[in-house]
Amino acid sequence: MPRPTGRVLTLLELLQSGGTRTVAELADRLGVDGRTVRRYVEHLIDLDVPVESIRGRYGGYRLGPGYRLPPLMLAEDEALAVLLGLAAGRRAGLPGAGSTAGETASAKIRRVLPKHVAGRLAALLDSLAFTDPSRPAAAPAPVPDAEVLLTLADAVRHRRPVLLRYTDRSGHRSERTLHAYGIVAHEGRWYVTGADPGMGADPGTGEQRTFRLDRITDARPLPGSFEAPTDHDPARQLLAGFAAAEYRHEVVLRVRATVAQVRAHLPATVARVTELAPTADEGEQWLRVELRAEHLDWLPPVLAALDRPFVIERPSELRALVTAFADRLASHALRTRRTPTT
Fold first, then answer.
1. Which of 38, 61, 149, 239 has the smallest number of CB atoms closer than 10 Å to its CB?
2. Residue 83 CA to chain centroid, in angstroms?
3. Which of 319-327's residues contact partners 24+ apart within 8 Å by CB, and which partners?
């Protein structure tokens, strides 16, 4: 039977979940009678926890504002959410997240966690990478399962193969074995990068793989271990995979610009950029820009916004689209406003 102290802490946890809780509801959750609930509330008040009593038909108890933060009780997934929020805040440069307060808050949470939970969370934070630049997602992204996330982090830290149950974007389900190298957060989504051991016998020679975590329904560690390449960069692998994804058109451009100017309109998730050797008659830097696209109609406005000299090497369809776009712009620029006749 739980001790009274344990029930008092459980009562605090219930109240911290928000809203007003009736005496009957609390009594049922704690397995005690109403009088005992009231006694537990008095214990919390004696500890300076601001518990308010709400009278009336729908009354009960709720936490109120106090002069200090009451003790917090976090479940494993809640502690994970807080620590990841602090890590993401430091990455994004949010006020307070990278300060001493953010560091001490993280340290306090880690210190009071059970040993096995602390180890799993530490593995995740150690294996986590962010793409650069970090920016918020345009819309809320699907949330990966916390158990899958922690299992993969443990596999990354201890270099253990892992068996994944994965559903791809077409709805096809399969089981995959992965040597996980790292976990990457990119624009609101989570990914795991690594190698397929079935595609190469030597360490680091397997085919590079990237999986979205919200599409993984189960992750299970397998016996054995592997050696990861010492120079592997999970975030770079993710971005390179996006840029090399199979689409209908392969676009190759030469642009006279700086890398920063091109990246302002074509990020690393979209295009690969390579510096070309300067020619004898042109002192300015030219870049080779390569990307794949399912449709080409979005590229002419991007090239216009870039506003730098460029050469389209392929495909020829893009030249026609750019010419038509330029003609439309010229037509609009020459158009004069007509005064309506009465």
1. 38
2. 13
3. 321/296, 321/297, 324/300, 325/300, 325/301, 326/300
Write out the DSSP string of 238-295: HHHHHHT---SEEEEEEEES-HHHHHTTS-TTTEEEEEPPPPSS--S-EEEEEEEES-
Q: Which tokens is 105 given?
A: 């808050």
Question: pLDDT exceeding 70 applies to what percent of the chain?
Answer: 80
pTM of the model: 0.51
Three state DSSP letters for 221-237: ECCCCCCCCCCCCHHHH
Please state, as a whole number, how many other Cβ atoms lie within 10 Å of the Cβ of residue 112: 13
Closest CA to 252 of 306, 314, 322, 318: 314
d(CA 39, CA 158) in angstroms, rounded, equals: 48
- Quote the radius of gyration of the chain (alpha carbons, Å): 28
**Which DSSP helix (H) or strand (E) runs through 75?**
none
Q: Residue 164: which of 221, 102, 231, 80 has the closest Cα?
A: 221
Report residue 120's pLDDT band, with 50, 70 and 90 as the boundaries: confident
Element (H, E) at 142: none
Q: What is the pLDDT of residues 214-228, one digit of tens each?
A: 899 999 999 998 988
CA 340 to chain centre: 54
List the alpha helices (DSSP H) in the chain.
4-16, 23-30, 34-46, 76-92, 100-112, 115-127, 146-158, 234-243, 259-263, 299-306, 316-334
Q: Which amino acid is at 129?
A: A
**CB within 8 A of 103, min separation 6: which ones?**
none
- Rounded to 10 deg, the angle between the 146-158 and 115-127 helix axes is 70
| Encoded tokens for 22 | 């009736």
